[in-house]
Amino acid sequence: MCMFPSKTLLQYLIENLINHPLQKELALIMSDLATIGKIISREVNRAGVAHILGQHGSVNIQGEEVQTLDVLANELCKQYLRKTGHFAALASEEEDGVVDMGEFGENAQYIIAFDPLDGSSNIDVNVSIGTIFSVHKRLPNISRTDEKQFLQKGSDQVLAGYILYGSSTVLVFSFGDGVHEFTLDQSLGEFLLSREKLRIPPKCPIYSVNESNTPLMKEHDVMFINFLKKDGTRTARYIGSLVADVHRTLIKGGIFVYPAIDAEHKGVYKGKLRLNYEAKPMALLLSQAGGLAIDGQQDILNKIPYSLHERTSLILGNADVVKEYETLSLTNNT
Ligand code: AFP
Hints:
Blueprint lengths: L8 H11 L4 H22 L9 E5 L5 E3 H17 L2 E6 L6 E2 L9 E9 L10 E9 L21 E7 L3 E6 L5 E6 L4 E6 L10 E3 L10 H11 L5 E2 L5 H11 L2 E4 L14 E2 H14 L3 E3 L16 E2 L1 E4 L1 H14 L2
Parallel strand pairs: 3-5, 11-12, 11-13
Antiparallel strand pairs: 1-2, 3-4, 5-6, 6-7, 7-8, 8-9, 9-10, 13-17, 14-16, 15-17
The chain binds 1,6-di-O-phosphono-alpha-D-fructofuranose.
């Protein structure tokens, strides 16, 4: 067995600075996010033991029940990131409005949006969950706590990624020059490089969709899902944690489809996933890995959010198959 581990995240970030000296602060941000990931990973792993599983009893801005681990992860992210001094403002799935970083954020150059614990309905059953983050430059001439700071295009993200708490804890991120994966070695307490410049495989062997929603979908979405199943060459996988479904898609290839649905049976079709801290960061990773993420009609990276917690439909995965969806959607959109 090899005595020497692969490159640590810290080594990687330092080496990367030789080619990208201006990314110094982003490297520090990435290192801080990795530390948060280690702490959440520890808490997730001992959640059952510590009897901190279960619901917190409150309801978040999305109308969902908040889990204890969600609260813990959100508080940790807020408190830790505030003290780093890198962020002028912060937005979280668990917070109604923009979070002021106080004196720590006065001279900060970046803003961050995150979902501290995505896939929280899976917490109680030991299914993979994750933290998603999206970092932008702070906009000048706008108050740092103004929601407009977060109404920036996905293509302007300077750092995006996720930490997946699964059978191992994995960090996947991009500064916009490739996607890199690091796996947490619990014994060393270090993230070690496991995949550099990750590319989505060319084949699309998996489709991932919550098929219980088909009665609520538009006709062309149902047609597309039937097309994906038509020749029996694809298998179905759906976890219900975006981080886990995206990670599998990046590693194995495939397509994830969450179209707009008419959840209230009123003829009004709406997306479920959040643009700022679910769709945008995943879209950057997919595009950097050679894939594509769209809302049905346009690249997610080109969408300008109109509100902090805006929801969107999301179709991502192998670019050729995602484009087939786009064509069908554009010709059938009503
Ligand atoms: P929760 O955090 O409420 O579990 O939502 C998870 C999520 O936002 C995303 O991670 C999943 O891809 C998606 O929702 C699953 O939605 P459905 O439960 O409607 O399939």
